[in-house]
Amino acid sequence: MEINGVEIEDTFAEAFGIQVSRILVTAATKKLAKIAATEATGYGTSVIGCPAEAGIDCYVPPEETPDGRPGYMIMICNMSKKKLDHELLERVGMCLLTAATTAAFDALDDADEKLNVGFKLKFFGDGFEKELNIDGRTVYSVPIMSGDFLVEGEFGIKSGIAGGNFFIMGDSQSSALIAAEAAVDAIGAVEGAITPFPGGVVASGSKVGSNKYKFLGASTNEKMCVTLKNEVEDSDIPADVNGVYEIVIDGASEEAVKEAMKVGITAATKVPGVLKISAGNFGGNLGTCNIKLHEIF
Amino acid sequence: MEINGVEIEDTFAEAFGIQVSRILVTAATKKLAKIAATEATGYGTSVIGCPAEAGIDCYVPPEETPDGRPGYMIMICNMSKKKLDHELLERVGMCLLTAATTAAFDALDDADEKLNVGFKLKFFGDGFEKELNIDGRTVYSVPIMSGDFLVEGEFGIKSGIAGGNFFIMGDSQSSALIAAEAAVDAIGAVEGAITPFPGGVVASGSKVGSNKYKFLGASTNEKMCVTLKNEVEDSDIPADVNGVYEIVIDGASEEAVKEAMKVGITAATKVPGVLKISAGNFGGNLGTCNIKLHEIF
Amino acid sequence: MEINGVEIEDTFAEAFGIQVSRILVTAATKKLAKIAATEATGYGTSVIGCPAEAGIDCYVPPEETPDGRPGYMIMICNMSKKKLDHELLERVGMCLLTAATTAAFDALDDADEKLNVGFKLKFFGDGFEKELNIDGRTVYSVPIMSGDFLVEGEFGIKSGIAGGNFFIMGDSQSSALIAAEAAVDAIGAVEGAITPFPGGVVASGSKVGSNKYKFLGASTNEKMCVTLKNEVEDSDIPADVNGVYEIVIDGASEEAVKEAMKVGITAATKVPGVLKISAGNFGGNLGTCNIKLHEIF
Amino acid sequence: MEINGVEIEDTFAEAFGIQVSRILVTAATKKLAKIAATEATGYGTSVIGCPAEAGIDCYVPPEETPDGRPGYMIMICNMSKKKLDHELLERVGMCLLTAATTAAFDALDDADEKLNVGFKLKFFGDGFEKELNIDGRTVYSVPIMSGDFLVEGEFGIKSGIAGGNFFIMGDSQSSALIAAEAAVDAIGAVEGAITPFPGGVVASGSKVGSNKYKFLGASTNEKMCVTLKNEVEDSDIPADVNGVYEIVIDGASEEAVKEAMKVGITAATKVPGVLKISAGNFGGNLGTCNIKLHEIF
């Protein structure tokens, strides 16, 4: 199968279940909202080593937010509800409450359950906090040094999908990289999907365990390393490929992840020098959902 | 005392000891280095709730880096050496190694000791890693999907200073906020100092414990809240002040923190509507160093 | 009349007719498209002194552009069709054709007429240019050093509106400035409207002619200068106002300008310290359309 | 000759004389200064079609500016002194005076002569302007709506160099593009040098006249077009090259241009896939200075 003349390998992305939250961060200006959203979603590439997977979903203009100010949707995810509860408390409390002019609203449709993050944070007000009702939402107003921080009482969480992915193979490292940026740009327009790695792009790939170091849980996937293509016997890197980047997607639903993969792959194939699109899986028995590349188009 | 016609209160900032690391992140372009540096220093405002205090120190042009590529200096800090070791391993491994085209070099002068972060990360190469010598540094080249990730074997750490600070009081919330941005801009030119909160600016202030909720370790400092100035009896907010923001500084040395406070305060006083500069302390017996505002000028 | 507790003066903005073009600039990535769009719309605040009025209208994700790449809508305007023709030729030829990976498509609905800008630019190909048909558009492919530049043969122009405006008066310069940024953020979501001044914000206001220097066509409007409010006899600055910024809007239609004024004013009134909204006019007999502030809500 | 393993062709860049000005734009914050500097230097790629060649030279931190606020150095250039005078008046008057919180200072060392740009602009104050002395500079304070605009009375100009250049040839369009970005990043650290094209990168190359269309003064240099390498007989594009970008440099001195070429080329050669560096000339008899690539290292 080809898209824009680029081969789409007949394979699948193996994705996993994850608990997802979605928060709208508003502020006085778009720039201030972005600063807060960026801090709150940092150090959030993969739960293998980070305390959460997190990213900015999309921008929301002032007319469409509960408080009439510009905002960014962010998503914070973890496999464990308990850890997600902790992360929400700390990321909202340390990175949004402390940021200039911000407010935080629940923005998850169809939540499976609610975590009372804002209710817990209101106690920071030491009795000076107030309960408000904004458009039917219970919101707490917590006095802080610079003004009042508004935070919704409850944040919804639901079962979502982590690890939707595809590989972009290019004739050079730079071709694959610019195509990866184009893919991230396209996924930016898909609601409910984030690309949690730095700039949305993943430079490294892992395999489970290690052949040489038995104490390791994961190590480089040498068959997918461009600089090893002539060194390892059974490299998966085609001869004309000199650059590979991966896009990893977390989504509030399988549909959001599939849509993100579709528009991301399509955008990537528009960049000259992109030779092939593939995807990562572990044989299909580990993950909760296998997304076949050929079936999303 | 006055600077540019603005009153500098005769008080002091109470700062604390912290373990500091400083890493140079280089990449193919300035923009790519910034993306990686931002991810690696996110979720890093205060160790009260974040796993580290972290931020970008300064930009370094290509001619001045070990690999001739543009880079950003970042600082990652924690009270505990053990926790800092963990944070370095995860933030470098999950946020720099995974970022496009990056390399990571030790950039701390006068280290007290070295942590073998890069040595540990090299095992990810599963035997395909190589040891290089770059300008006398031991650097590991780890093959990853998109190319090779270079990481220095050891990263220095040293006793530094956390919690250098000052308050900017303005006639409006916006005056204090723009002055805070100007202060952060000025501190950007001080080597070895970061402002770890979102955008470098702190919107909230705490007191130890809580008057109302006994289970809390910290709560809002109601005496410093502008919206409570007519509500609490002994407010510290002058009648004409309607906005307060704090700048918090972590530094590799007391000198760097003092210099940052000096240039930051000076820049803040240039903004119309700034009425007073103060600083935060706990009486002077908790911290490791008390920095008197009047003595840094 | 009040919006969010802020007084909206019972006055009107006096706007003028202008010839408007609207171009979609696409590129390999969102960032590259932004770079080209910014260069092409620079030096374009007011035709009083600039060769055009120009700005970025909005971002368009890859799925919604003719070539499946991310893009920005830009608008370039001039009172004179002949001058607009010249500006289109030079701004597209010097700032888009020369920019990395770009293409330029006509994006004006309901054009009054068409200018054959792309047809003229195709000759740069010196015989190597090709005529393509993309979704029914006649597009020229011009070989340049780095690849092929695609440009639509004809760009539509129409009678639009220049000089839609409102003033934001704040208790401090910074309050008015942050409110102005919020207004620009809100207007960013209105299709067919740009705010051509630097960052969308106007720091200065003019009156026709000069009282002191007879050779001047325009001079500062001293009645609207905050630093002169106690110096001139009949200042229009209320006693409690210390900052005024203006938002100037050009639009493809009167409706777009009115919508921009509405959402911009609404967003501005959300910022603490904003005291009053007004608008600029010359008595109502100079412009082609008078937009009453009270009638747009 | 090779730099970092990349062939540097034994050729030269043919550069031209140009009149150069250099202005320091300060503002309340770094971001506000950048907005003004960007507007004032837009539509300024080449005097072939733009009214000036212009760009941002470098950032200057608050401690190093005359008014203690963050600033950007910009350069505005034109072959003709008269046109440069006009451009300075309009770009400063329409793009800096109108921008929020800005001031404009002369920043050219060793000026050949002075243009009284600020003296002319002061009349906008209609008699309310004041003459100040800041660090020995004559500066006018002009009351505008939002406060006072400071502008130095005279701006220096001098004979500088336009059209310093080099070509980056890569195995793919993307390799050459990322290398071009790296080159621009490196040149950013050279004082007195700008890269006036969009993002500093030039996607197109011209030859004098046209083979097919006699009415053209310039047309595409088909021998340097990658998509024509198999179509034209005597292409200058090596068989393995699929992307070419040019960096064009304007400088306040020949030394600045040479230094910019040196650090730019060095940075470009660090990007994987860069195969060759060349430069553009017209035989050597047209320009005022021929810069041999092999002599700058």
Automatic annotation (TrEMBL), chains A, B, C, D:
Transmembrane segment boundaries: none
Stretch forming the signal peptide: none
Domain Formylmethanofuran: tetrahydromethanopterin formyltransferase Ftr C-terminal: 147-296
Keywords: Acyltransferase, Cytoplasm, Methanogenesis, One-carbon metabolism, Transferase
Keyword Hydrolase in record: no
Subcellular location as annotated: Cytoplasm
A GO BP annotation: one-carbon metabolic process
Any one of the GO CC terms: cytoplasm
A GO molecular-function descriptor: formylmethanofuran-tetrahydromethanopterin N-formyltransferase activity
Protein role: Catalyzes the reversible transfer of a formyl group from formylmethanofuran (formyl-MFR) to tetrahydromethanopterin (H(4)MPT) to produce 5-formyl tetrahydromethanopterin (5-formyl-H(4)MPT) and methanofuran (MFR).
Protein's recorded name: Formylmethanofuran--tetrahydromethanopterin formyltransferase
UniProt source species: Methanobacterium veterum
Taxonomic classification: Archaea, Methanobacteriati, Methanobacteriota, Methanomada group, Methanobacteria
